Amino acid sequence: MEKETILERIVIDPKVCHSKLCIRGMRYPVGAILEYLAGGDRIADILEAFPDLEEADIQACQLYANGKLRSNPFIG
Q1: Which of 27, 38, 70, 73 holds its CA 20 to 30 A away from the CA of 47?
Q2: Which residues contact 3 (CB under 8 A, 6 or more apart)?
Q3: 72 or 5, which is more confident
Q4: What is the mean pLDDT of residues 44-50?
Q5: What is the pLDDT of residues 6-28, one digit of tens each?
Q6: How far apart are the C-alpha atoms of 57 and 24, rounded to whole Å?
Q7: pLDDT > 60? residue 49
Q8: How many domains does the chain have?
């Protein structure tokens, strides 16, 4: 997935989710999706629970988090 694709899927909208990062302007905070994954949920579990999400949305969340970790001077 390219950076442009991530930026299309991960957005900040002051009118949605109190300006938190969310998926495609819907009320799915990126942090919540990452918490599901960290808690052991599989992508298939998340997609079943939230059918309006797409696998690429979850991948964008993972790539966004990975990019933030790589740019953090205190990590790696």
Answers
A1: 70
A2: none
A3: 5
A4: 98
A5: 778 999 988 888 889 999 989 99
A6: 8
A7: yes
A8: 1
Residues whose CB is less than 8 angstroms from the CB of residue 59 and which lie 6 or more positions away in sequence, other chains included: 1
Q: How far is CA 67 from CA 18, 20, 31, 42, 44, in A?
A: 23, 17, 14, 21, 23
Q: For residue 25, what are its two tokens?
A: 């302007």
CATH number where 54 lies? 1.10.10.10
Report the alpha-carbon distance of residue 37 to residue 35 in Å, rounded.
Answer: 5
- What is the domain range of residue 10? 3-65
User: Helix/strand/coil (H, E, C) string of the chain?
Assistant: CCHHHHHHHEEECCCCHHHCEEECCCCCEHHHHHHHHHCCCCHHHHHHHCCCCCHHHHHHHHHHHHHHHHCCCCCC
